[in-house]
Design goal:
The structure holds 2 protein chains of 2 kinds. Chain A is an alpha+beta fold. Chain A folds into 3 domains: 3-290, no CATH class; 299-410, no CATH class; 419-476, Arc Repressor Mutant, subunit A (Orthogonal Bundle). Chain A is built from 15 helices and 15 strands. In chain A, the strands form 4 sheets. An 8-stranded mixed β-sheet of chain A has the order 5-6-9-1-10-11-12-13. In chain A, strands 4-3-14 form a 3-stranded antiparallel β-sheet, with no helix packed on it. In chain A, strands 2-15 form a two-stranded antiparallel ribbon. In chain A, α3 links the parallel β11 and β12 (247-252). Chain B has helices at 6-15, 20-38, 46-61, 103-110, 153-160, 177-183, 217-227, 245-248, 271-286, 302-317, 336-347, 350-362, 369-389, 415-420, 426-431, 459-472; strands at residues 41-44, 72-76, 114-119, 166-170, 186-189, 210-214, 257-261, 290-294, 395-399, 435-443, 446-453. In chain B, β2, α4 (103-110) and β3 (114-119) form a beta-alpha-beta unit. The N and C termini of chain B lie close together (7 Å). Classes of the chains: A alpha+beta, B alpha/beta. Chain A binds chain B through residues 39, 42-51, 78, 80, 82, 84, 87-90, 140, 142, 269, 271-273, 276-279, and chain B through 79-80, 86, 88, 93, 96, 98-100, 102, 197-202, 204-206, 232-236, 312-313, 315-316, 318-322, 324-327, 336, 340, 360, 363-365, 368, 372.
């Protein structure tokens, strides 16, 4: 039988606020355990939550970016369950009336076509703390620094049909929240993670199969692997005549398998009800419009503009608009250079990305800032140096030896473009190699390469290759 | 020393006829003498109180004192107090010292009042007789065999017996007004949101409201002036100006309209009590107020509505007491689940557990719509009934409780009978309105309370009516035998 995979994702993005969603404690990552948890985060008797207005602004910003309905009135609800890392015994979240309603994003499929994935809702909630098992022999410690960290839970419709699509969707949301500054999207620190609802059904079937929920997938690679493995598992069960049970499963990246976390029998009844400590959030049009005014150019729009404004290839544009930082960098160089946009694109995608990847740093930390790269590329455009020499200069710039002109100067890399001098060198090489010259004139034009090589050798690679080629042809004809 | 009102004590402190230290020492002495009989206090903070009194005396000497500087006061043990035990009447918090002060505690300390201790209460404010306290029941100063009501029973008994001139309380379903009625003092619950709930240990967040237990309405106005106002730490706290309550006390009630809900004078009301309440209303009529019958058609649903809403909220609010971070923790738990189960089983009393279970039930999948959601709807109907009445009347008057003080042990095994004791007070909480109980007579030597209810943020009106009534009567000046020297 042919099977169709159906996937919906619940993405948790940590909102980029300085303080927590309901208290003034810091959200900074990596502090000593329990040093960033105030009495509100600790759920002390008598304390009350006060909503951080910035959380609302960021949530609305995301909603507007996916063209979603923004609720003029939304409410917080309590999700009740006992767990040691949940200090109050309930999580403040939203159930009915979430702040962001139906929206959608477009993803690019492998075949180059676009697909729309519907977003059901996005709601604000607080994160829990974490249990620490390693540090205490036979006992569990609790670090509540994370408790009360603001999250936006973004829930999709079950619109994805493969692990690749799920990854494309997650990348798209990741790109969006980072463009918007709504979240730093840092997956290592847990600022961006997702749960995947995965089911399979016979191709052509209308009804959804029974789903399993895969928890806490925190890298693009794991999502793809986990989903593929889960799909295989479900198909195996169904083809053996069995039934998939609805349950929560955990992906174990070491063993590359999913295994049950808790079954439905143990599932909590969360007893959601409106949180009486918090008033409904009432948003008027003026506020929503003021947030809309803050929206930056979004990835889809930027891509279209890069194609039309800079005349770049679609595939290059995708790379250059991956993040706002890369796009901004590209534009800074391209605008400073006022010249060859494709040259800039090639350098940003090629040499620069290579160097960044080598060092594992982001473009915002590039050791060659945009102005400096523009300075280098300018020397290619005006024929001061060849593209090959430029790579050497770039490497030196990366090592901190100075700007392009200083390095070209100190290394004597200035390209010989003086017509008179080049002519003298060309004539000398022609004189020195009568045999090869004869061969060329006899129609063995391949020999030209040898002669160019000789010229480059005698100039230590500094001769302008384009001019050398032209001169040689002229003199030999 | 006779019982003294805040107003009298304030005058004495300012004219130098008594010092704060003397007033505080007198209060501590009475606590030492009578608390063994009453069990009104869980904690007495003598040394701290005397230090605060000396500081107050310095302010008085320097002429920097406010109207309440130096006056002894007790806080219901539901308010968090830094460095002092805050038990909420529960074994669960029998070891809990709060790291911070509640907003009410801060505000009254800033006004110069001297805290002499923390008063006994029903466990987590769940009870109407003070019998659910882990620290034992409180006795009614008028008859030690009887209940002072609850949950602010300790505060009520302490004020009635003259151990302190005033005390704070909280009122979720009548927990200030009912004990005030049963011990013959003035109990005032402001509009929901008028006083910050920050630092007040939550029972039912949408109903809880702090208020005052005093001898007179004038004293309630004085205390309210220091307690009321916006607090950014409580999202449900009203951001609106606080009127000068004392300034409005002397306004005439002539020409004002009093609504008498016919539903309040039903067969459940003790006839002798009803007679006193009617007489009290006629006193106000004598001052020129106009009386008319009104109807609260949905008020009959208030007790069942309350016993869905309040337990639902409490079942969630009390989840934080899990033995993990503070409070009672079972020592020999061998798993996480047993830590939770044993700590909560041993830390909470029967009534608290009953309400947690009720609340958990009404919020459960499959029952939520039938109970919780339905209760939210009837709550709105009840509130709408009151709102409709206040379109034509300035105040609503009636009994505070169906009967005078009942015997300790009489209702403790019958939760429904106990719950019905709050039948006239609970609707006011569901509607979030201000209400007061003032003494209006005695039945067989036991005080009877007159309840007056105002519109939203109508504190001034309620206090004005109560004060005008007290100018005409002396029921509030009657002192239990116990409290006479």
């Amino acid at each position: 039988m042919q099977w169709e995979t159906v996937i919906g994702l619940e993405i948790h993005a940590q909102l980029a606020t300085r303080s927590k969603i309901f208290s003034g404690a810091s959200t900074a990552y990596g502090a000593e355990p329990n040093t960033q948890a105030c009495i509100v985060d600790l759920g002390y008797p008598g304390v009350l939550p006060v909503l951080n207005a910035e959380v609302v602004r960021l949530a609305v910003k995301f909603g507007l970016a996916i063209d979603a309905e923004i609720a003029h009135r939304s409410i917080f609800a309590r999700k009740n369950y006992f767990y040691p890392d949940l200090p109050k015994g309930y999580q403040i979240s939203q159930l009915e009336l979430p702040i962001v309603g139906n929206g959608s994003v477009k993803i690019l499929l492998d075949d180059g076509t676009e697909k729309t994935v519907r977003v059901t809702r996005a709601h604000m909630e607080e994160d829990a703390g974490k249990s620490v098992h390693e540090m205490f022999d036979g006992e569990t410690g609790i670090d509540l620094n994370r408790a009360g960290t603001p999250l936006l839970e973004i829930v999709s419709e079950p619109d994805m049909r493969s692990a690749r699509e799920a990854v494309a969707y997650m990348r798209k949301i990741h790109q969006l929240v980072r463009y918007l500054g709504v979240s730093d999207g840092n997956m290592q620190e847990g600022s961006f993670r997702c749960d995947a609802n995965v089911s399979v059904r016979p191709v052509g079937a209308k009804e959804l199969g029974t789903r399993a929920e895969l928890k806490n997938l925190n890298s693009f690679r794991f999502i793809e692997k986990a989903i593929n493995i889960e799909v295989e598992r479900q198909i195996d069960i169904l083809e053996d005549g069995g039934k998939v049970i609805q349950e929560t499963r955990l992906y174990d990246s070491d063993r590359d398998e999913t295994r049950p976390m808790r079954s439905k029998e143990e599932a909590n009844d969360y007893r959601y009800f409106p949180d009486p400590d918090l008033l409904p959030i009432e948003l008027d049009d003026a506020f929503i419009e003021s947030v809309r005014d803050e929206l930056p150019e979004l990835p889809d729009a930027k891509r279209a503009r890069f194609v039309s404004e800079y005349g770049l290839k679609a595939s290059d544009v995708i790379t250059l608009t991956t993040s706002r930082e890369i796009a901004d960098y590209y534009e800074a160089v391209a605008n400073a250079l006022a010249g060859d946009h494709r040259l800039v694109a090639n350098w940003v995608i090629g040499e620069l990305s290579g160097a960044l990847n080598r060092e594992g740093i982001g473009i915002e930390d590039s050791k060659v800032p945009a102005e400096a790269l523009a300075g280098l590329l300018r020397r290619i455009s005006d024929n001061t140096i060849s593209g090959k020499m430029a790579k050497e200069v770039f490497e030196a710039m990366w090592q901190g030896e100075g700007d392009a002109d200083q390095i070209i100067d100190s290394r004597g890399l200035t390209q010989i473009s003086d017509a008179g001098e080049l002519e003298r060198i060309v004539l000398q090489v022609i004189a020195d190699h009568p045999e090869q010259v004869q061969q060329y004139r006899d129609g063995k034009t391949k020999v030209l390469g040898f002669l160019v090589g000789q010229i480059m050798k005698s100039t230590h690679g500094k001769a302008n290759p384009k001019q050398v080629n032209e001169l040689l042809r002229n003199k030999l004809s | 020393m006779e019982r003294q009102t805040l107003a009298q004590l304030s005058a004495a402190l300012h004219d130098g006829s008594v010092s704060s230290r003397e007033a505080t020492e007198a209060s501590l002495a009475r606590i030492a003498q009578f608390n063994p009989l009453l069990n009104a206090f869980i904690t007495v903070t003598g040394d701290r109180a005397l230090a605060a009194a000396d500081a107050a005396d310095r302010l008085l000497a320097e002429g920097k004192a406010g109207p309440l500087t130096g006056i002894p006061l007790a806080h219901k043990d539901i308010f968090c107090t830094r460095e002092v035990l805050t038990t909420c009447g529960s074994k669960m918090l029998s070891n809990f010292v709060s790291p911070y002060d509640a907003a009410v505690v801060e505000d009254l300390a800033a006004a110069g009042l001297v805290m002499v201790g923390k008063t006994n209460m029903d466990e987590f404010a769940m009870g109407s007789s003070n019998e659910t306290s882990f620290y034992g029941p409180v006795a009614n100063p008028w008859d030690l065999e009887r209940s002072p009501g609850g949950s602010s029973g300790g505060s009520a008994a302490a004020v009635a017996a003259g151990l302190v001139p005033a005390a704070t309380g909280t009122d979720t379903g009548g927990s200030i007004r009912q004990p005030a009625a049963l011990v013959g003092i003035t109990g005032f619950k402001p509009t929901y949101g008028r006083v910050s709930r920050y630092g007040m240990i939550a029972f039912a967040s949408s109903l809880d409201q702090a208020g005052t237990l005093t001898l007179t309405a004038e004293d309630a106005a004085l205390l309210m002036q220091a307690m009321a106002g916006f607090d950014a730490r409580d999202s449900t706290c009203a951001d609106r100006p606080v009127p000068d309550y004392a300034a409005y006390l002397d306004a005439s009630v002539a020409g004002k309209r009093i609504g008498i809900p016919k539903e309040f004078f039903d067969e459940g009301l003790d006839p002798a009590s009803a007679e006193h309440v009617r007489t009290a209303i006629s006193v106000l009529e004598g001052l020129g107020a106009m009386v008319e019958e009104v109807s609260l058609p949905h008020i009959g649903a208030s007790v069942p509505t309350y016993y869905i809403v309040a337990p639902a909220e409490c079942s969630s609010n009390l989840s934080r007491f899990d033995g993990v971070r503070f409070g009672y923790r079972h020592k020999d738990a061998d798993s996480l689940e047993s830590l939770y189960k044993k700590s909560r089983k041993e830390g909470f009393g029967a009534e608290v557990k009953r309400r947690i279970m009720t609340g958990t039930y009404v919020l459960s999948a499959g029952y939520y719509d039938a109970y919780y959601l339905q209760a939210q709807k009837t709550r709105q109907l009840i509130a709408a009934d009151f709102a409709q009445c206040f379109e034509t009347v300035d105040i609503i008057a009636g009994p505070t409780t169906p009967t005078p003080a009942f015997r300790l042990g009489e209702k403790v095994d019958d939760p429904v009978q106990m719950y019905l004791n709050d039948i006239y007070t609970i609707g006011v909480n569901l509607a979030g309105l201000p209400g007061i109980s003032v003494p209006c007579g005695f039945v067989a030597g036991l005080p009877v309370g007159l309840q007056m209810i105002g519109p939203t943020f109508g504190e001034s009106t309620v206090l004005n009516f109560a004060h005008q009534y007290q100018l005409q009567t002396d029921w509030h000046l009657q002192t239990p035998d116990l409290a006479r020297d």
